[in-house]
Task: inverse folding
């Protein structure tokens, strides 16, 4: 560790720029609670950015700190400036012989970081688009929420890869910290510490978790399965046709960039244009223009390291202005560069990805028993010949409406009332509307759509068409998830004979007045969900692994249909569940 601290000091002294650096203190190593640590404190003096000509008297003075912590085979460098994080990372990747202890290290593999930290509640995601650029879809986006795994669109978000993520997870500490991870940069951040003890706790929890995951052999290349994963076969990459630099606000570590780097990246991402003029396999040449002036050509050589990181070499082949060297310096940072290829690949966030639609299984099934019910019959029948729809028999016959009444009509518990109403008929909101209060948490509004099975056979095949009509009905009525729209629609149909059927806590009500009053009084803080009851699909058939054939392609079509509906509901903040036969 002592030699590693000396290397940090050598690296600080060797940085070639216009900043005067002097080391004030090198302390350590000290071992405590399984961690060995030390630090280097140094001072940087430089000309302020606003000063045109240095006068030798006016200077910015910044005290910088690099803390080095080791646990077993892992070393963490904690830097007060992101620029020095990059200096250390470059020395490691270049295996710089002038700092042999640093050069002997290797970046932690992204798959290990994913396994150790990309779990728990996903609170923030930085996404970069792999799709061809279009005004219809963002190039990049930043998402924030309670748990974004549930918010990703199974169809629309397949064309994005995540560059960074913040997760709230259990690291064995008194609280559940929110940890930020940039896997392809081997970078972790956990917020500022207000004391050395707090810092020690943060770093130890991170390094211990990393060591545990590594000791257990855990690796996770795709922690968020909906999103794209890197492609490591660079021989398949060809035909670069567009490139750009992402602006600083789209980088997870933008707040850690110093002012000079932020200004530089802001300028080149907004005012520069890169035009691909020649391409050979993954390599290409780009003409560079800044403020509409041609400043030269850059040659890009692109490769992939063993751990999936992109390796980029940039050289000037035609110089037509001094700013070209600045462009080359920026483009050598793979995490700032985006390149689109005709082969369907995209270089983004320091890795190569291949844009390809993948079939994502629908995960919103709720498999239930329909024993003693007629799975093909939606509504109860009565009358002299037993062929007339009789809503009075809801709850006492064997139709699917009766099944819904059994499962939703009695959901009330003491202190948490629930209401159910049938809205079947012309201009219906849904076959049933259910609203329940919870003892803890906001109330829940559920729109329930029912469709009879296409077959009663115990060996029936999957059928996409059996779901198409009921899914269409559900999507057509999504506007009813809004409380005001729902009240208007339910009030309008309250006088119709088929819509007088309502229950409170499982007991028949004379009308739906109690439900309407509950909706009026609940406010806007309520959860929303859409449920489809269609027992057409058999669990045993759906989960069975089959080779390409009729069942295989039907399952893919059904997944696509239901995933698309799920995405529509998600866009309105609603859950989406399909209830089918558990046999």
Result:
């Amino acid at each position: 560790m002592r030699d590693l601290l000396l290397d940090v000091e050598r690296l600080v002294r060797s940085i070639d720029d216009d900043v005067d650096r002097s080391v004030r203190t090198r302390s350590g190593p000290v071992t405590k609670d399984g961690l060995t640590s030390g630090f280097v404190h140094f001072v940087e003096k430089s000309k302020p950015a606003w000063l045109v000509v240095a006068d030798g008297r006016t200077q910015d003075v910044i005290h910088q700190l690099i803390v080095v912590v080791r646990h077993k085979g892992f070393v963490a460098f904690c830097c007060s400036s992101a620029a020095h994080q990059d200096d250390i990372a470059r020395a490691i990747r270049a295996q710089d012989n002038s700092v042999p202890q640093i050069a002997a290290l290797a970046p932690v593999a992204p798959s290990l970081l994913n396994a150790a930290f990309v779990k728990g509640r996903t609170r923030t995601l930085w996404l970069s688009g792999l799709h061809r650029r279009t005004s219809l879809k963002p190039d990049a986006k930043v998402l924030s929420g309670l748990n974004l795994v549930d918010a990703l669109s199974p169809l629309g978000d397949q064309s994005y890869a995540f560059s960074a993520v913040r997760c709230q997870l259990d690291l064995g500490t008194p609280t559940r910290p929110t940890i930020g991870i940039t896997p392809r940069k081997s970078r972790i951040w956990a917020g500022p510490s207000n004391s050395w003890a707090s810092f020690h706790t943060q770093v130890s929890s991170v390094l211990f978790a990393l060591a545990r995951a590594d000791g257990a052999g855990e690796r996770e290349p795709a922690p968020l399965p909906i999103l794209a994963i890197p492609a490591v076969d660079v021989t398949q990459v060809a035909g670069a046709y567009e490139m750009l630099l992402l602006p600083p606000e789209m980088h997870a570590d933008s707040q850690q960039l110093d002012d000079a780097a932020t200004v530089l990246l802001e300028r080149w991402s907004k005012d520069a244009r890169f035009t691909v003029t020649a391409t050979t396999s993954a390599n290409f040449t780009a003409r560079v223009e800044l403020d509409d002036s041609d400043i030269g050509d850059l040659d890009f050589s692109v490769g992939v390291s063993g751990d999936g990181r992109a390796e980029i070499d940039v050289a000037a082949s035609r110089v037509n202005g001094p700013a070209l060297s600045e462009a080359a310096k920026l483009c050598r940072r793979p995490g700032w560069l985006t390149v689109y290829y005709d082969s369907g690949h995209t270089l983004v966030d320091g890795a190569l990805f291949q844009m390809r639609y993948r079939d994502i299984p629908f995960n919103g099934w709720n498999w239930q028993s329909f024993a003693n019910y007629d799975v093909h019959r939606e509504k109860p029948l009565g009358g002299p010949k037993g062929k007339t729809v009789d809503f009075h028999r809801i709850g006492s016959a064997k139709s699917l409406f009766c099944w819904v009444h059994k499962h939703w009509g009695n959901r009330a518990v003491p202190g948490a009332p629930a209401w159910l109403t049938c809205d079947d008929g012309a201009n219906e909101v849904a076959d049933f509307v259910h609203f329940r209060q919870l003892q803890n948490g906001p109330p829940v509004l559920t729109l329930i759509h029912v469709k009879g099975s296409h077959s009663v056979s115990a060996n029936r095949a999957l059928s996409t068409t059996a779901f198409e009509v009921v899914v269409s009905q559900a999507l057509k009525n999504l506007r009813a998830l809004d409380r005001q729209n729902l009240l208007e629609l339910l009030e309008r149909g309250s006088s119709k004979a088929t819509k007088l059927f309502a229950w409170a806590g499982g007991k028949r009500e004379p009308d739906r007045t109690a439900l309407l009053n509950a909706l009026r009084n609940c406010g806007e803080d309520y959860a929303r969900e859409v449920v489809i009851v269609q027992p057409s699909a058999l669990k045993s058939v759906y989960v069975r692994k089959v080779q390409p054939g009729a069942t295989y392609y039907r399952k893919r079509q059904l997944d696509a249909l239901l995933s698309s509906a799920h995405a529509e509901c998600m866009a309105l903040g609603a859950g989406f569940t399909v209830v089918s036969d558990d046999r």
Q: What stands out?
A: Residues 234-354 form one domain. The longest helix spans residues 550-571. The mean pLDDT is 89.
